[in-house]
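Retro notes
What went well: the complex prediction finally ran end to end.
Inputs used:
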Amino acid sequence: VDGTAEMIFSGDELLRGDVLNTNQSYLGERLLDLGFLATHALCVTDDLAALTAAVRDSLTRRPAVLVLSGGLGPTEDDLTREAVAAALDVPLDHQDDLLRAIQDRFAGRGFAWSESNRKQALLPRGAAAIPFSGTAPGFTMERDGTLLIALPGVPWELKDMWQKHVEPLVTGRLTGEETARAAGARSGRAVSSPTGWAAVPAAAHEVRRLRAFGIGESMLADMLSDLDWHDPDAILGTRASLDGLTLILRGQATPEGRRKLDVLQERVCATLGDKVYSLTNEDLPVVVGDRLRAAGLTVAVAESCTGGLLAKRLTDIAGSSEYFLGGVVAYDNLVKTGLLGVDETLLQTHGAVSEEVAAAMAEGVCRAIGADCGLSTTGIAGPDGGSEDKPVGLVYVGSVVKGVTRVERLRLWGARDQIRERAACSALDLLRRRLPR
Amino acid sequence: VDGTAEMIFSGDELLRGDVLNTNQSYLGERLLDLGFLATHALCVTDDLAALTAAVRDSLTRRPAVLVLSGGLGPTEDDLTREAVAAALDVPLDHQDDLLRAIQDRFAGRGFAWSESNRKQALLPRGAAAIPFSGTAPGFTMERDGTLLIALPGVPWELKDMWQKHVEPLVTGRLTGEETARAAGARSGRAVSSPTGWAAVPAAAHEVRRLRAFGIGESMLADMLSDLDWHDPDAILGTRASLDGLTLILRGQATPEGRRKLDVLQERVCATLGDKVYSLTNEDLPVVVGDRLRAAGLTVAVAESCTGGLLAKRLTDIAGSSEYFLGGVVAYDNLVKTGLLGVDETLLQTHGAVSEEVAAAMAEGVCRAIGADCGLSTTGIAGPDGGSEDKPVGLVYVGSVVKGVTRVERLRLWGARDQIRERAACSALDLLRRRLPR
C-alpha cells in the first residue's frame, strides 16, 4: 500500500440509519485496489460548520486521497462546495461553461430547470470539474499533497463518475502538474493548483480475487498455516460470507510482481483443490450457469426449506433462461407427492427431511420439467420445527446429473435466513462440482 | 431531538469495503428513536493513535452519547479499551470479577481459553462493565456530560447488548449518579464517575412507523403538500425502499404528545387509504400471511420473471407453512403449459408477457397445487429481452382469490434486481388488497 486515503460522506440519512452506506464499501475496495489504504471514513451531519471542520481535520492528517461524497445537489442541505472552499480558504467561483453544460444536460433529458440548480455551477477556486452522468458535477482539487475528490452521493452516479473519470486520473500515476493539466484539459479549463500531488502509487497494483466454497474457519486456519506464506510483495487476504470465501491476492503489476502472485495463486489452488470455484471473482450461480451452458445441459430445482431462494439465485443472472427451465417450491408435502411424484411411503418412513426424499425430489423435478439436471433442498430452517433427531440446521441437498443421483447431508448454523442462504449455495456448489469445468 | 450522539467504529474490514457497516444504520435508528440525533459516525483504522485521537476529538464536541463499536476482542488489533483510557487519561485496571465471568462463559460454552483473553477483563478506570451475551464485555463511562458506551463489533452481539442493557439504561432517564449506581450494581462494582450525565432526553419519545405500498414520488409530494402539517411536536418523516414507503411519526410519549400523533396518523391514513398496509412497521409478507391465516386461506405462486423471489419472500417468514403450500417457477414456456396447464394458444396469441397468461398462470397454480389463492408474475426483468411493444420493466401480476381472477399491469423501472423485487412486492400487495383485513 502506497498511501492513505480518507472518505467523508455528508447526509443525515446515513446517520439516521435510513440507508446503508454502500458508497463507503465500494470506495474502500476500489481505493485499496489502487494502492490506498483508507484510514478514516466519516459520515457527517448536513451542517456547514461540521462539514468544514471535518474536511480541515482530514487534511491535517495529509492523506494522499480525500474522497467526499454527497452534498453536490441544488438544495440548501448540499454544502460540499461551500465546506471545501471554507476549509481551503478559497472563494467559490461561478463557472459559466459548467453552468451551460448543466443546463444542456437538463434540457437534453427533459428535466425542469430551476434557478436553484445554478448553485451546481459553483466550484471552489482551483478546482477542476469532473464530467457528470447524472445531474451533479463532481470536482477535484489538490492541496499540500492531498488529492481531494468530490463525488455525488447517489450510488450509481458515484460509481459511474469513479469508473469513467476518477480511476483513470489516479491510475495514470501522473505527477501533480500533469494531473492538474489533464483534469483541466478534460474540463476545458486551466487549473491553478500550486502544489504537486506527491503520494501517487509508485507502481500499479494487481489484485486477484479467487472464490471458494465449503471451507470452514478451522480449515481456513490450517490452510493458511500450511501455506506459510510471508512475502510482503504478494499478500493474501480472506473474506468470508454466506456464499463462500473470497481469497484476495495483492501484489505489484510488474512482471516480477505477477510471477509472485502466480506462485501464491498456484499454492492456494493446490491446497484448496476443487473447493476453488472461480479465479476471476465470479459468483457461484454465474459459474454454475457457465458450466451448464458449456456442457449444453438444462437444470430444474425442487425446493422445500429454501422456498424459492435457489431458483431466485439462479435467475438473478441475466440470460439464465438458456439453461434454467424452472422449479417447484414443494413446501407442503402434498406438493412433493403431487407435482414431484415423491412416493408417500418415503415421506412416512423417513420424513420430509431425509436423504431419500431429497433424492426423490431432485429426480421428480427432472421428470416433471424435463431437465437434464435436478437440484433439491429439504431441511429445517428454524427457528421452530427442530427435534433431537432432526435439529434446526439439518439440511439435505440432492442432485441429479444425467440420471445419476447424489445427496449431501449438511449441518448448518445461524438464523433462518442464514440457513436458507447456505443451503441454496450448498446445492449450487454440489451441482458445480458435478459438472465438467 | 434532545441531544446529539456520535459513533466510532474500529475495524479495517469496514474501510477496505469487506463488509457493510450495518451497525451504523442500526445504532443511528435506535439513537434517533431515543431522541438523539447522530452528527458524526466515523470508521477508523485499527491503530491506537488514530483511535485515541478520534475519541478525544469526539469528546471535544460534547455529544450526549458516544457509542464505540468493535475493538473489544482479545487480539492485538483490539484497541478500544486502550484508546478510551488514553483519551480520558485514566489507567486500565484488571477486573478480577469480570475475568471470572469471562472464564465462566468460555467454560460454559466449551470454548478454548487462551491467555490472550485475559485482556478482555481490562477496563478503563471508572468504567462499568456491560453484561455480555457473546464473548466480549462492553462498558460504559461518563465524562463531562457525555455517556460513552463501548460495544462489540459483531452485529448480533452489539444488538443483543444494546437491546438488553444499553437501551434500558438510556431510557431510564436517570441522573448521572443513578446511572452510575445502576450500572455499578449490575456489574457488581462501584463506579467512580465524578460527573453527571446531563443530556438525557427530557421526555421519552414515541415513534410510530406506518408502512404503505403503491405510492410514487409525485403522489407522496402531493400527499405531503395536501397534509400541510407543521406541528414541531409531531414530526412526519418518510423513507422509500423497494417494498414501499415507511412513514415515520415522531413525538413525545406523553398523553398530549400521543394525542397529536393520533391526529397526524389519522390524517395520513385518511389520505393514503388502502395503500397503508401496516400501522406497526410489519413487512408486507407478514401482513399478507396474517390476513391469509385469519381468513383460513392457503396460497400458491406461479412465477416467471421473479424466478422464485415471490415464494422466497413468503417463506422468509417462519411459520409460513401454515398458509403457503408451494409454487411453480415457470421460467420456460414448457413449464407454463406443462405444470401450470396454460393453454399454448394463449402463449402464441398474446405472448408469455401478457394479461391473459398472467391470469392463466395464477389459475393454473391454484389447480395444480390445490390452493385457495394464487399469485403469478410474468414480465421482462431485463437488461435484455425488451422490445418496443414489451419494454424492459413491463410486468403483469395475476391473482386468484376464491375463484375470482384479477390481473394488474405494471411499468417498473430500475435494474434487473429492482424490477424483480418490485414485481414480487406488487404481487404480494395485490393479494393483500384483495384479502379481508
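What we learned: The first helix of chain A runs from residue 12 to 15.
What to try next: split runs per interface for comparison.
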